[in-house]
Amino acid sequence: MSAPSLTPSKTARARHAQPPPDDPPPPGGSFARSLKRNLTAHGFLIGAVLCFAFFSWYPMVREFLLAFQKTDQGEVSWVGLDNLRTVFNDPAFWQAWRNTLLFTVLALVLGFAVPFAVALVINELRHGKGYLRLLVYLPVMLPPVAAVLLFKYLYDPGYGLLNELLGSVGLPEQQWLQDPDLSMLSVVIASTWMNMGGAALIYLAALQGIPGELYEAAELDGAGLFRKIWHVTIPQTRLILSLLLLMQIIATMQVFVEPFLLTGGAGPEGSTTTVVYLIYQYAFNFNNYGAAAALGLLLLVLLAGFSAAYVKLNRAENE
């Protein structure tokens, strides 16, 4: 009689060779598994949503409610459209809108064209592009108050640098911030210098992405400098131009810092009173928060309507 074999059977070997079973899925289905895997990402997302809700969405909702309310010694009451009537009957209302539109037009003429021209010049240079980019962007890195105070010194009628330069060439000195005809233009020049660096760098990045073959083909067709800009540069950068145009209109319609620091807000004969400065006056000088909210709501509706119309027209053009 032979002894029993000590070698494990094939069935036992196969049983021991099988991989261990997977861990059971966590309860709650696929959403719970996804939430567990992306817990960190969801945490950052929730934090961003809460920040937007607290600092952006809640103030807009609160402004909408304040536009139809009146606060008197801590008591809030609904007044309907009374705040809007107060705003419309204020003579400064229409002047503020005229000044704001004038600032927007002048800012588009200077602040939209000058950065594009600066980007074109830098793009054509062979050496020193890095230093020029830093020089152009330097005003953006300055605190806005410091930059405005620098221009206030330049515009000073007594010892300002601009009047010194005019006097050195025999030209009459100017009352830059005291003359109603020059005050708004002076504010626009200061604002353009302060804010053109970012737009210039964006334009420069767009210009460097244009294929050189397009310019070579234009030169073979006999195109000069301005024809190349009109037929090659502008069409190739149309998307960036349109986007920055929209952003600049929205920003210039909300101008406040420059006229407030240069001319005290209103300026000579109210020549630099803007809509946002009038909102500031209603809220902090007149303690009429309802009228301030009503005027802010009008500005919000105007800019939102303009943005929606612009996006719709741009989409229709692309289609």
Q: What's the gist of this structure?
A:
By secondary structure, this protein is mostly helical.
Topology, element by element:
Elements lengths: L9 H8 L11 H9 L1 H28 L2 E4 L2 E4 L3 H7 L2 H34 L4 H13 L2 H11 L6 H8 L14 H26 L3 H9 L4 H12 L1 H15 L4 H7 L11 H11 L3 H30 L1
Antiparallel strand pairs: 1-2
Question: In words, what does this structure look like?
Answer:
With about 325 residues, the chain is mainly alpha-helical. The protein contains 15 helices and 2 strands. Strands 1-2 form a two-stranded antiparallel sheet. A hairpin with a 2-residue loop joins strand 1 and strand 2. Helix 5 (about 90-125) runs parallel beside helix 9 (about 185-210) and helix 9 (about 185-210) packs antiparallel against helix 13. It is globular and about 75 Å long. The chain starts with 9 loop residues before the first helix and ends with a helix.
Rg result: 31 Å
Largest sheet: 2 strands, antiparallel
Main-sheet strand order equals: 1-2
Class from helix and strand fractions: mainly alpha
Q: Tell me the overall shape.
A: globular
Counting copies of identical and different chains, the oligomeric state is single chain
- Tell me the β content: under 5%
Query: What value does the average pLDDT take?
Result: 83
Count of DSSP strands:
2
Order of helix and strand elements from N to C terminus: HHHEEHHHHHHHHHHHH
Summarize the amount of helix as a percent range.
Answer: over 70%
Low-confidence segments, given as residue ranges, are 1-6
Distance between the termini: 93 Å
The count of helical stretches stands at: 15
